[in-house]
Design a protein that fits this description.
heterodimer; A: alpha+beta; PmbA/TldD fold; 2 domains; 9-stranded mixed sheet; 7-stranded mixed sheet; 24 strands; 37% strand; B: alpha+beta; 3 domains; 6-stranded antiparallel sheet; 6-stranded mixed sheet; 10 helices; globular
């Protein structure tokens, strides 16, 4: 495989490429999906191919093929150069220049205690069927859905700059949902996905089966829960909820390619314009410290090197509430004055070009070991939100609206009755500026996402967005039901 | 890959299988997508992809294995893996047998001029239109995509299906300091796409969008373009599942036979629709032939999509999922709809739409690339973008007017729609 990656680079050079890199990728994916007591999908997916990226006369060309052999490697390389020559017809005056990166030769492998592919599919199916059976036993539950997925990506990267990198990345995930219905109304409650680059030991550590009854009972309880009072109130947000708020309002907003307009036709731009880096910008309260860390153990973007051959790094995005840095690819890094990419260029398959993706982006815990209960104690009238619900943000990443999975009223410093259909709206810097409490490291969780969509053609990426609990003051809350 | 390959391969599987039945599902993609931003090409991706799914069926169980290796050796290896999986799979209480031979409607969706569109031709169009964007002091971004695609299905019960089609798409966004306008053209036939016209529309609305004024959020009469409606309606179509309705977890519970929309509205899904041709194979139901389905007739809900298992259990007709559909409308163009409007908002494009409450079908999202205040039949000024919380079902229950249907996203035929009190919930800063 290493030979094929290097042969593709050489073929591209011979065809006239000024720069070339190639990725030979073999992906094994196993999904088990169960609906009620019916096994809906049990299967393995094996996908293999070569992608070759070249620069010719300052313009990009990329070609891919779903075959892994010498002829296909050479064919993809020649086609990539032909595509780059076409791109050069409309590259303008700003020819593409890559930020420098020393050549790397090495291997990286996810630490795995229990290989998820060694667990037989009947064992995985039986686990999910037991979970669904438990949920369906709860009166009022009309539907139970459960799923588990394991992925292994084995990649060989080679570049004309001399890099030769092998990576073996394993990730696992599992989730389930109970649906309750009664009198023309319906509510759901989930044990949310919690993907990590780890082995089956991560799934076992979640004790999924033990929580199925509670999850189902909470789905039923939501049907008779009260609606929230509308207006400005304080919120307590748990890590399983906050991860998505971080992802949408900080992660995407600080992708440098968006800032430059590369996603203006699709995923959108960003309010965090280049002047905010030069002049300084107050993104949130002094407590806010966001760190990008693609070396985080178990992080979904922890891959040793990115898909441009840049070593994974750790850097500040926001510190003491002030905006510090973007995420970047080699192509855009120098546009913001960086002399090296932060290593955020990733592709979702051999058939995609690497694009600027959100790194493992984490809100750091507070310096003091404040518990969630202590945060709640500081709220006279508020709502505690756990899990994900509805989410939407404008294309410059300012105005957002989020729901959640389960809500509790807070009265005089104590968690009280369950609420339903809560949504809150805010504008990114106002929201992060209103945070006045952050829990300690003991309550921090590395939540993450496996289906972050961006780019044309659309690509999905994986990253961890770790979070503690936070308290945020005076946020506009309304009912998500009319 | 072609039909001959499919016939030969299913014969091989029939001969070598170690289970009662098996099926093959092959997807082929040959596509180039040229992407531009900052008035230059920033990405240019060519793909040749093949993915084959082999399903082993035995004693009311199914096991799947996918591979990109479609050599005889690769197919047999995937078959062995699927067989190994099916042997570990518990019996499926919702199992349905593989369907037998089918007769498919003949739908022409393959156009040589699309398959033969070159990367050079696309780059030249982009060079010309980005130069024009620059001369207008705007930055142009977008894509020019073309490709040919194929689906091939076969099983040991005698089903054999193939469908090849082409797609072309040109989209462009023109941006300036305080405005953006965008437009898109998409069809199976590249000859029906006019990139110059798409760019002209993006330029026009970028210019009209300058100096936007803030408007207090609230309920406003709103004219929604066909493009915007096409962005909302998939969220409705996705909910039109009979099983979800029967189980009480959908907006459509107990609504079959009831009037739920304006009597001016018909919605149907027909692969043979001349103006909106679609896939003749039902991928959600093991490849059976797709028939015309009437979903809404004069505002009355007639059908919900119903999978084979649920249709058999409930003794109701099977209805193929209708994620591609056609909706009736009027005969006025968007320009005529604007001219007939007294006061209200015109929304060009919607962004980041999500369910707020699936049971009420309330959706949220924001306007994008053009929100305008219309007065006395003319666009008066641009408005800063806003977030909405609104149900398309409420909108379509009492629409004030429906425009001429347009084909959008290569799968939906929809009109523009003028609604009385569209709920704009909050504002953003641009």
């Amino acid at each position: 495989m290493k030979d094929l990656a290097e042969r593709a680079v050489e073929a591209a050079r011979l065809a006239g490429a000024d720069y070339a890199d190639s990725r030979v990728l073999i992906v094994l994916d196993q999904t088990v999906q169960v609906e009620d007591l019916s096994p809906k999908f049990i299967g393995d997916q094996h996908d293999a191919g070569i992608g070759v990226r070249v620069l010719k006369d300052g313009a990009w060309g990329f070609a891919s093929i779903s075959r892994v052999d010498k002829r296909s490697a050479e064919k993809a390389a020649k086609e990539a150069v032909a595509v780059a020559k076409a791109s050069a017809l409309a590259v303008g005056r700003d020819k593409i220049i890559l930020a420098p990166e020393s050549p790397h030769i090495g291997c990286f492998e996810t630490k795995v205690a229990i290989d998820p592919f060694s667990i037989p599919v009947d064992e995985k199916t039986a686990l999910l069927l037991r979970i669904n059976a438990t949920m369906l036993k709860v009166k009022g539950i009309v539907k139970a859905e459960a799923r588990t997925r394991a992925t292994r990506r084995h990649q060989f990267f080679a570049s004309s700059e001399g890099s030769s990198i092998e990576t073996l990345i394993t990730s696992v995930n599992a989730e389930y949902t109970a649906v309750a219905a009664d009198k023309g109304d319906s509510q759901t409650r989930s044990l949310l996905d919690f993907p990590l680059n780890k082995g089956w030991e991560h799934i076992l550590s979640r004790k999924m089966e033990d929580q199925a009854g509670r999850i189902a009972e909470e789905a039923v309880a939501k049907l008779s829960a009260a609606y929230p009072e509308e207006g400005l109130i304080d919120l307590i947000l748990d890590p399983s909820h906050l991860a998505l708020t971080i992802h949408e309002s900080v992660g995407h907003a600080t992708e440098l390619d968006r800032v430059l307009g590369y996603e203006a036709n699709f995923a959108g731009t960003s309010f965090v314009t280049l002047d905010k880096k030069e002049q300084g910008f107050k993104y949130g309260s002094d407590l806010i410290h966001f760190v990008a860390d693609n070396t985080l153990e178990g992080g979904l973007a922890t891959t040793g090197w990115d898909d441009e051959g840049v070593a994974c790094q750790k850097w500040d995005i926001i510190k003491n509430g002030m905006f510090k840095n973007y995420s970047s690819t080699r192509e855009v890094a120098m546009r913001a004055g960086y002399n090296r990419s932060f290593g955020s260029g990733r592709a979702d398959s051999y058939a995609s070009m690497p694009i600027n993706r959100i790194p493992n982006l984490c809100l750091m815990p507070g310096e003091k070991e404040i518990s969630p209960e202590e945060l709640v104690a500081g709220v006279k009238k508020g709502i505690c939100i756990e899990g994900r619900g509805s989410w939407s943000i404008d294309q410059r990443r300012l105005n957002f609206q989020f729901g959640g999975d389960v809500f509790y009223e807070i009265k005089n410093g104590k968690k009280d009755r369950m609420l339903r259909d809560v949504i809150y709206q805010s504008v990114t810097p106002d929201f992060w500026g209103a945070v006045d409490g952050i829990s300690g490291a003991a309550w921090w969780e590395p939540r993450g996402f496996q289906n972050c969509g961006k780019g044309e053609p659309m690509q999905t990426a994986q990253m961890t967005n770790g979070a503690p609990w936070i308290r945020v003051r005076n946020i506009r809350v309304s009912r998500g039901k009319k | 890959m072609n039909t001959e390959w499919l016939k030969e391969t299913i014969r091989l599987v029939e001969k070598r299988k170690d289970v009662a039945d098996a099926s093959l599902f092959l997807v082929v993609e040959n596509e180039n997508l040229t992407r531009f931003a900052e008035n230059r090409i920033t990405q240019n991706t060519t793909r040749h992809r093949i993915q084959l799914q082999v399903t082993a069926v035995h004693n009311k169980r199914r096991g799947m294995s996918e591979t990109s290796d479609v050599s005889s050796r690769g197919v047999l290896a995937a078959l062995r893996k699927a067989e190994a999986i099916v042997k570990l799979t518990p019996e499926d209480p919702e199992f349905v047998d593989l369907p037998g031979p089918q007769r498919y409607p003949i739908v022409r969706r393959f156009f040589d001029q699309t398959a033969n569109l070159t990367v050079e031709a696309k780059a030249k169009v982009i060079a010309k239109l980005t130069a024009e964007a620059a001369s207008r002091k705007t930055t142009g971004s977008g894509i020019f995509r073309s490709g040919d695609y194929g689906l091939y299905m076969a099983n040991t019960a005698g089903l054999l299906a193939d469908h090849a089609w082409t797609e072309a798409e040109f989209s462009m966004t023109a941006q300036s300091a305080d405005s953006s306008g965008s437009a898109v053209g998409q069809d199976e036939d590249a000859a029906k796409i006019n990139p110059e016209a798409v760019a002209a529309e993006a330029f026009r609305f970028e210019e009209l969008g300058r100096n936007p004024r803030e408007l207090k959020p609230g309920a406003y009469k709103t004219l929604m373009t066909a493009r915007s409606l096409a962005e909302l309606m998939p969220f409705v179509a996705y909910q039109m599942d009979r099983r979800a309705a029967d189980e009480g977890r959908s907006f459509f519970k107990n609504k079959i036979g009831k009037k739920i929309l304006s009597s001016k509205i018909d919605i149907s899904a027909d692969p043979k629709d001349r103006l909106n041709p679609g896939l003749p194979i039902d991928l959600y139901n093991d490849g059976i032939s797709r028939k015309k389905a009437v979903l809404i007739e004069k505002g009355v809900l007639r059908n919900l999509w119903t999978r084979r298992y649920w249709a058999k259990k409930k003794r109701v007709p099977m209805v193929s999922p209708a994620l591609a559909f056609s909706m009736s409308g009027g005969n006025k163009s968007l320009e005529e709809m604007i001219r007939k409007m007294d006061r209200g908002l015109l929304v060009m494009h919607l962004w980041y739409i999500r369910y707020v409450n699936p049971m009420d079908l309330i959706l949220t999202g924001t306007s994008r690339d053009g929100l305008f205040w219309v007065e006395d039949g003319r666009i008066k000024h641009a408005v800063k973008h806003m977030r909405f919380n609104e149900s398309p079902m409420r909108m379509l229950k009492n629409p004030l007017a429906l425009g001429l249907p347009e084909r959008r996203q290569g799968s939906m035929l929809l009109p523009s729609v003028l609604v009385k009190d569209f709920n704009w919930a909050s504002g953003t800063t641009f």
